[in-house]
Amino acid sequence: xxxxxxxxxxxxxxxxxxxxxxxxxxxxxxxxxxxxxxxxxxxxxxxxxxxxxxxxxxxxxxxxxxxxxxxxxxxxxxxxxxxxxxxxxxxxxxxxxx
Length: 98
Hints:
The chain is mainly α.
């Protein structure tokens, strides 16, 4: 059985691993777990989390970070989530930015 110091060190190591990199911005397991916990709390979801759910959630996290980075590059001030989605779609040729 690991000592408390070893267990803490192991948790710290886990928090510093990287599960994804989005244009030089790392997503750690701790980031992913925190975001999933917040999503489950806000949406009142209970029960175990499947590996498939984690993969899908990570994919959404990556997309979200890409959108934020693009908004920052394009100097878009985020005031309205719907407007950001519309502008993102416009930049990809899906719909006009309103």
